[in-house]
Structures are given as C-alpha cells and as structure tokens.
Amino acid sequence: MNLKSDVLVLNSNFLPLNVTKVRRSMMLIINGKAELIEPKEEIIHTSTDSFAMPSIIRLFAYIKPFNRTIKMTRSELFTRDEQRCQYCGVVTKDLTLDHVLPRSRGGLYIWENIVSACIKCNHKKAGRTPKEASMRLLTKPSTPPHDPYYPFYRFLDNNKEWIQWVPAKRVR
Ligand SMILES: [Zn+2]
Which residues have beta carbons under 5 A from ligand 1 (an ion)? Predict the structure, then answer.
C-alpha cells in the first residue's frame, strides 16, 4: 500500500478541487469532513481491520476554489506540451527546453518563447530560429489555458477512474 498515492478531492458540488495524498484524505473521512466516492483497487490491511484506500473523495463543506496562476517551471512546460517535442512530435521523458527565438538574440524565458524539444531537435536547431533551421513548431507556444481543470489533466494517465470527474480535456 502506498499512503503517498494521489487522491482526487471533489468539492461539495462534485467539481474537482485539488489533489491530496491518501493519508490526508483518510483523515478527512475519519474526521467526518469528507466521504469516499471511489476507492483504489488496493485494500489497506491493519492488524485488526482492512479498509479501502481512497482514490476520490468529496468534501461535505463547499470550499471556494482559488484562482490558480501556473508558475512557469520545466515540468509545467513539459506538461503544457504533453511531454512532446514541439518540433518532431516524439513523446519522451528526455526533453529539454528550447528558446524559440534564441537567448543570444534576446529571446526571453517566457511561456510564448519556450518549447519542449527532444535532445536531437534541440541540438539540430542550436542557436537558430526555427525558420533558419528549417524546423516547424507543432503548436504556437502560449501560456497554459485558463482552464480550472488543467491542473488535473496530468494525473489522469495514472488515475483512469478520475476521468469521469474531470471535465473533458479540450482537444487542441
Ligand atoms: Zn524532436
């Protein structure tokens, strides 16, 4: 069993609110603050008892969701680009970040100028613009969408049972 697994927390109105860990979610249930909506497949066995490990819980009290601005980090950039090299389209864990307009030409480290690139493409493009390198970007880089469910998308691959609770991801 893994008490550090992710648990989806639904607001009292059943909309996704945040993601917590098993331990915290169990405390919320034990303290009467939340109910179990869906268990994980694993069962927790203690010396005297066994119980289902939560995968999705729902809070009884409504929490006002706060507006998230997503901080620009490597992993957020890779998430925005769906782990995909924005030049050749390969999906890989070995991604690098590429300045579309090279730093040496004054290209800034901003959402609109940074894309995920595989090592091969980054090496090939080097200090050139995409046009100079005859490389085409798959998508125009931009700030992540103002979508309140965006932060949950990255969890869906490992938590298939959450999909029905997270409003559909828009296909780009
Ligand atoms: Zn590539």
Answer: 85, 87-88, 118, 121
What is the model's pTM? Answer: 0.63
Q: Report the distance separating Cα 62 and Cα 24, nearest Å.
A: 18
* Assigned CATH for 74-125: 1.10.30.50
pLDDT by residue, tens only, the chain of 172 residues: 577 899 999 999 999 999 999 999 999 999 999 999 999 887 777 788 887 789 999 999 999 887 667 889 999 999 899 999 999 999 999 999 999 999 999 999 999 999 999 999 999 999 999 999 999 999 999 998 777 788 888 898 889 899 889 876 654 4
Question: Range(s) for CATH 1.10.30.50 in the chain?
Answer: 74-125
Nearest by Cα to 137 from 126, 145, 129: 129
Q: Where are the alpha helices (DSSP H) in 70-139?
A: 74-80, 119-125
Residue listed under structure tokens 């957020």: 76
Distance between Cα 85 and ligand 1 center (Å): 5
CA of 121 to the centre of ligand 1 (A): 4
Distance, CA 157 to ligand 1 centroid (Å)?
Answer: 22
